[in-house]
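INFO  loader      accepted 1 record
INFO  loader      residues=128
INFO  predictor   begin
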Amino acid sequence: MKPALTSSDAMEQLLTHHLNSFQDNDLDALMSDYTEESVLITADATYEGRAGIRGFFSALIPQFPKQTTRFELDKMTVVDDLLFIVWHASTPAVKVTLGTDTLLVKQGKIHRQTFVGQMEQVGPGGPD
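INFO  predictor   done
INFO  writer      dumping C-alpha cells
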C-alpha cells in the first residue's frame, strides 16, 4: 500500500507541476493549477481568475522559451498551506537575477500567489 502524501509532499508536487508546465511553455497545464477564485498579485497589477492569470502568463511565457531557458530554484519553504520560493533564470531575452513567489494553496490548487522578479532585458545574444 502506498503511503499517504504529507502536506509538504503535496505542495512539492504542485510546485513541480507548476514549474515544469511553465518551463515547457504549456499554458493549459499551467492554468490547471488555478481556479476561478485564484488571485495573482505582481508589482505591476493584480490578476483575478483563470482568464486574468492566463493573460499574465500569456505575456510572460514567450520570454522563457523552453529550449533556451536556464532556471534554478534557490530556496523552497513550505509551512502548512503556504509555499515560498526564491529562484533565478536566464534566457536569450531576459535575465532574472532574483525571482520570488509565495503561494497559498487550498485543495491542491493555487488560491493566492504573489510574484516579483528583478528582470533585465538582454541583447539578442543572451545573457553573459
